[in-house]
Amino acid sequence: MSSRSNNFGPSNSLHDVRYEIRGPLAHRAHELEFQGYEVISLNIGNPGRFGFRAPESLRLAIIENLGGSDAYCHQKGIFPAREAVVMQQQSRGIMNVSADDVFIGNGVSELIDLTLRALLDPGDEVLIPSPDYPLWTAAVTLNRGKAVHYPCPPELGFQPDLEALEALITPSTRALVIINPNNPTGAVYSKATLQQMIALAEKHRLIIFSDEIYEGMTYGDAEFFPVAPMVSKTLVGTFSGLSKIYRACGYRVGWVSFAGDKAGAGGYLEGLDTLASLRLCSNVPGQWAVQTALGGYQSINELLEPGGRLHESRQAVINGCAASRYLSVVAPAGSIYAFIGIDEQLIPGADDHRFALQLLEDEHVLIAPGTSFNVPYKNYFRITLLPDAETIDEVFKRLDRALTKYAESPNAA
After folding, report:
1. Residues 160, 130 contacting (CB under 8 angstroms)
2. Are 311 and 270 found together in one domain?
3. How many angstroms separate the CA atoms of 360 and 28, rounded?
């Protein structure tokens, strides 16, 4: 007889894997909605849920090519989509990239998993920012690696602590992840900061994985600098896609392109090609939108300029924090998120999960606790900037009511 229990438990590989953005709090929010309550869900950056639409030209490109989308395509993606990514990279001065260096995936999420699976052996380390987008940490863990978090602390405006980063590099370190513009903090890194990070990666021969899904989504004077044009002495993979800039999350189309020093990376890229082949190909209809998206009018700029919806929503968050006696924020310079702090002098011992649950139950607002993003402190939470400014104003009224009640609770500390 088998010695295994008849109970079907999860794989041990899931023991340290978390994705709390869609975890118990989100499940409770769904229960409340089934009971008839209207929940303002700020936990996920999902533009379509807040009335944003993908550009019509993208939809037309899919419709016009739907008849040719029945068959599997090449495992790396259709040529027009990959060539569009190449042309974008060449416009940035990256000349040593071809369609063979581009992989199209079912969103960046799938490509994060594949690129790490092709790279990691048990115990290999990957440097990931803290706060992070938790899929990076989860994917490293699931692929037998060890996620090592380098601090990007609030006191530095969520910029990387470069000395701490270098101190974390060991002989087991294989890769450096850069998320810029950053999710969850909205930080945008300067060219000098990126150059120093690249220098460390080149010195220690680390692959750079540059997550640029929010590329070009900046506010005010902030400037986005792509990483790949600055890399010459190591391999760099640049991730982007249609989900955020083009408001097309449901299309599930992302890409990674490789540049830099590809000498010695042939085996790795062949392994990645094998993994891409095993899943046959990514969603074909959505791929037809890539060329139109990258080569067409960039409507995102209208949303980011003064008077644009994202600009005004961002300002509403800044104003809401300024007016609150409990809250503070480093004004997000990019992306569609704000990482908001609770004043620990007014609410000592604040617990992000406990507060998030109370806010959901009492005020029907769903936020993402800060510890979901692999930080050691518990007095932060993330919200998305996607609701309109009027909704955000209402959210901050509810936040202040909940914080006042939380501060008066005997279990707050």
Report:
1. no
2. no
3. 8
Alpha helices in 92-160 (DSSP H): 107-119, 134-142
Omega prior to 348 cis, within 30 of 0: no
For residues 224 and 191, is the Cβ–Cβ distance under 8 A? Answer: no
Instruction: Fill in the amino acid letter for 167.
Output: A
Q: What value does the CA radius of gyration of the chain take, rounded to a whole number of Å?
A: 22
* 260 closest CA partner among 177, 172, 201, 188: 201
pTM for this structure? Answer: 0.93
Strand order across the 380-384 sheet: 327-329, 337-342, 380-384, 368-369
Phi, psi of 14 (to 5 degrees): -90, 0
Query: What is the distance of C-alpha 310 from the center of its chain?
Result: 17
Last residue in a domain, options 295, 313, 339: 295
Tokens representing residue 137 in the block: 């940490």
- Residue by residue, what is the 3-state secondary structure of 193-213? HHHHHHHHHHHCCCEEEEECC
User: What residues contact 125, with CB distance under 8 A and at least 6 apart?
Assistant: 145, 146, 147, 148, 170, 172, 173, 174
Enter the DSSP assignment of 179: E
Q: How far is CA 337 from the centre of its chain?
A: 10
Residue type, 84: A
**The pLDDT of residue 216:** 86
Determine the angle formed by the axes of helices 284-295 and 56-64, rounding to 10 degrees.
130
Quote the domain boundaries for residue 208.
56-295
For position 111, which CATH number holds? 3.40.640.10
Q: State the Cα–Cα distance between residues 146 and 73, nearest whole angstrom.
A: 34
Domain contains 3: no
Give per-10-residue mean pLDDT for the chain (413 aa): 63 69 85 94 92 95 94 95 96 91 96 97 97 95 96 97 97 98 97 98 97 95 96 97 94 96 94 95 96 93 96 98 97 97 93 94 95 94 96 97 86 52
